Amino acid sequence: MKKILIGAVVLAALLFGVGPFAVGVLSEKQIKASLKEARGADVGVIAELRDHNRGFLTSTGTILVAYTQEQAEAFVASVDTDAEQPMSPEFRAEFVGYMTEGLPLRYTMTHGPVLFDRGFGFGANDARVTVGDVDWASEAKEFLEVDELFLVEGRTGFTGNGSFDFSMPAFDIEDEDSSGTMMSAGVTGSGTWHQGKRLLNAEFTAPKFAFKDPEANLAVDNAVFNVSSTLPVNGVSLGTTSMHFGTIAMTFDEGDDVIMDGFRMDAEVSEKDGGKLLDMVTTLAMPNATFGEDKVSDFKIVMQMNDIDKDAANRFQEWANNVSEDDFNEQEMNELLHNVLSKGMFVAIPEMNITVNGDSMSMTSGVRTDAAKVPDLDGFFLMDIPMWMEILSGDLNFSADESLALNMATATLVSQLVEQIPPEQEMDPAELGALAEQQAPMFLDTLVQQGMIVRTDSGYEGTYGYENGIIKLNDIEAPAEMFFGP
Asked: How confident is the model at residue 396 (pLDDT cuts 50, 70, 90)?
């Protein structure tokens, strides 16, 4: 009995005495090792340990996550390019400053081996992570009227594997004059990670988000984000990600409301040939939608890239993460693209379907590069059309119901007519649409007579291809020089 009691006392001393201190030391080392590995990932974001205060039973600290100067400038430049009104130099500098100032993550960690914060269990630590002190975060919390921007609570085991729960608070705010409102029912999530495999599995759910102002309203219901992916280190993440929405509704005072039901986006990146090659597949799908007066259903498009050289893709990704508008080097991009294409690659849309107001269209296409025909770097130029004609081959097939084909022809003619109208001459959009609609049947007949498309019982179809300098238009084959010149 005494031996049992002595053993129990020694075990208790190890678990509740020496144990927490030893685990605290190991946890600090693990944090530093993980941040060192993250810095080696070179994804345009830096993560550094600003402070770590190790206690006996608990430790606290701050990890700063921020964009590099180059990545911040590149991101702001891309936003500024797409904006209707360019940013002022002052606002642009302030925007970059916020991104480089970063996000301080404040953590409190309870040391194992015996843990209670997330229920009784054994492990290295239980941790709680929130946003630390930074001006923009304080302003955001005051604006949203919340105590925390987000909260992460997790448990890490002795092997580095763990689990976590994530939450963002709900909020409901309005302008001072009550002309606009914004609300969120909050965001919740949970997941696990595997240290050895560098694998993250997680799901995040946002039940409702809404924004309203006098001119437009936006409502998003039941958004779900899933990820099962490896964390990148000097390369591309492998795995799957998906974003699914219950309903996305955009309403406007001027009409032409947009309502999308069940929209989803799925992506997968996998490797093959012993990890030398990558395959990437992205799928967009939507069962039903309304765009103004048009009803859309059964929309689906699958895009894939196969046989991508992994090393070449990793170098291109590293360059893309760090290049900015000011130091963009066309020659460097030329070299990186040559490196990717010289290994061979296949890009395809194996499936695309859409039904508009009861009329359907489908399409498939694919383009392949012939690695053996890609010239040396000295002879590789992006604008060299004959070079592309030499190294590329591809095919495209489509079919469309007659009514939808007429609508597409009408839209094409409207664009052509707009370009032909002198700037000083104005034309009523309704008259322009009516003129294009009148010419659409003749436009399609001309394409049929030229062999560009084929008439079917329900509409039109086309089969096209290119390989070894020969272009195929349905049943017609001809040298490419007939279309593009020598």
From this structure: very high
